[in-house]
Each structure stands twice: as C-alpha cells, then as structure tokens.
Amino acid sequence: MATQIRLTELSHGAGCACKLPAGSLSQVLAGLPAAPRPPQLLVGNESLDDGAVWRMSDELAVVTTIDFFTPLVDDPHTFGRIAATNAISDIYAMGATPAFALNVVAFPKALPMELLGEILRGGAEVAQAAGVAIAGGHSIDDPEPKYGMAVTGFAHPDRIWTNTGGRPGDVLVFSKRIGTGIVATAIKREQAEPSVVEAAVESMTTLNDRAAAQLREVAPSAVTDVTGFGLVGHARELAAGSGTWARLRMDAVPLLPGVRELAESGVVPGGTRTNLEAADAYATFGEHLDEVERLIACDAQTSGGLLAAVSPADAERLGWPVVGELGGGAPGTVLVD
User: Edge-to-edge strand order for the sheet containing 171-174?
Assistant: First the structure.
C-alpha cells in the first residue's frame, strides 16, 4: 500500500514553492509591536537573514534556524533527504557549523507509519553526513505531510556571514544550478523525464558544506542561500540588506537539465509565478528576456546553492559562475538582463 501512495498528490505545493509570499509576510511583520532587542542578539529578523545569531561569549555564537515544507517528490526517503539538506543549508549560509537538530513533522495519521519512517530515515542519513545529531522533535496530525528541521550551529561571533555586508563593486557568485521548482512541478504532474529528476534530486540532496568551506577561503562580504523566493528574490534581499543595487546576468546563470523545455511547455509552480509578480515592485527585466526566462529567474528553489558577494579577485580564485554584481544604484532594486 505504501509504495502506491504518491506524496506529491497529498500536497497543494511543492517544497519551498509553498512559502507565503514575501510581500504578505513583510506586511504582517511590519504590524507587530517592536520587541526589546537584547545585546546578545547579533542577527534577528530585521535583515531577512537565513538564521538568528545569539552571542554566548566573545568567542562563541549560537546560530539557529527552522525550515520545513510539503513533499516535492513521491519517494519518502528522498523527500526526507531533500528537506534535511535544505534546513541545514541555512546554517552553512550563516558561516556556522551545524551541530544538532530537532525534527519538525506534520503527517496524516491515516497513512502508513512506514512512510513517515522512511522520511525520517532520509533526514537522519543527511544529518549524519553533515555531523548533525538529531536530538528530538515534534509532530502533529495533518492531512498534508510536511517535514523539516530546526537546526542549531556554532560560529565565532566575528566570523558570522549575513546578507547585509555586500559592497558596490562586488560580484555575485552562485554554487548550484537553478530550476528545482519547475522540475518539482513536473514531478507532481508526472511530466518529468527520469534524467531530469535525477539531476534535480542530486542538486537538492547535495549539502552546502563544501561550498561554505570554499567561501571561507575568500572571506565573502555577504552570503545567502537561494530557496523559495528564487534567485531574483534572494538577490533583492541581499541588495536591500547591503544598501546596494544588484544586477543579474541570465546568460551566466547555470540551469538544471530540462528546465527551459519544461517552462516553455507551461510547467511552472504557482510560487514561481507569485515571485515574478512580486518582482514588479523592485526588479527591471531586459526587453530581450521573454516570460520563460523571467519565470526561470524567479523560480522558487528548494535546497538551492549559496549566493555570495565577493571581490572580483576572490571570484576568480573561487571559480564559481559569476552571475551578477552589486552597484551603487537604488538600494534593494535588481536589474535582470
């Protein structure tokens, strides 16, 4: 029975594409009363960063994050691997070393528990590979499955990465290929070729530990990971936090196999279309970019790569694709050409 159940049929969205729109969240957060800010809180929600940072001492800071979402593949073990890789990524994006995690589970009690066991097994395998101890968790009965982790890591307070330190003249480098949102929608619609699925799953289950280690060698000025708000949306957050303007060069952005063809055939998640609509407020697209290219630029990613602002010399040393740059234009705006 368990092998006949398609997890993607039980979810309204797929992976990070099920995020609430950034604009809606901003309106809600803006209406909340201001809370006292302890001096130990080095990074909170004011900068839309990937995690919160609490200074324990002059040499130790705690970094914590939480991330969970609905299934974007049908195999429960693979779903668990992707969700864990995605959650742990936020710790790497802050320049920290992940240490332990708590599982976050929503699961229909009417489904076979062996499915949940496979999801948790996948998450546990990734956690072990990352050196992360799973110390507990929380679960609820929910008609729509969801899985993720609250992850805690550690770093030196002076070596935390944020998305606020970018400088005019920095270039933007990116560590993975994009298009996972489009592929996930193709999986849900049973329109994805096996080779296309394999490439996307390999990307989404690749930890960002190696990418983070490479970045430490060049001292980036700003870092984030690209997930549900797409490449354009996360570039915008980095630019806004840094007080700069960002430019993205689409011809330099690496794509996963089959993504362009799927988008051309109309296989695009709702979250990606929402991202493109939201981009009207802050992004300008070159006239030569058609709707498909604009949608790909805004595709809602799951377990995406690290996007970093570095000097041109450091970018050359790093060897990652250079997908854009930061400049002194209107802060928080993005030119996509």
Answer: 222-225, 306-310, 171-174, 322-327, 245-248, 334-336, 283-285
pLDDT at 48: 82
CB 182 within 8 A of CB 267: yes
pLDDT in tens, 37-63: 899 999 998 888 999 999 999 999 999
Residue 317: other Cβ atoms inside 10 A: 12
Contact 210, 320 (CB under 8 A): no
Tell me how far apart the alpha carbons of residues 333 and 236 are, in angstroms, rounded to a whole number. Answer: 6
Give span(s): CATH 3.30.1330.10, the chain.
2-159
The length of the chain in residues reads 337
Q: Three-state SS for 100?
A: strand
CATH placement of domain 171-336: 3.90.650.10
- Work out the angle at residue 316's Cα, subtended by the Cα atoms of residues 311 and 318, and round it to the nearest 5 degrees: 90
Q: CATH for 2-159?
A: 3.30.1330.10
Confidence check: pLDDT of 98 > 60: yes
* Mean pLDDT confidence for 15-22: 65
Q: Which residues contact 289 (CB under 8 A, 6 or more apart)?
A: 250, 297, 336, 337
Instruction: Provide the annotated active-site residues.
Output: 16
Q: Where in the chain is the domain with CATH 3.90.650.10?
A: 171-336
- As given in the structure block, the two tokens for residue 81 are 């691997």
List for the chain the helix, strand, coil content (%; round to 5): 40, 25, 35
Q: CA 189, CA 10: separation in Å to the nearest integer?
A: 13
E strand spans, 226-311: 245-248, 283-285, 306-310
What SS3 state is found at 59? coil
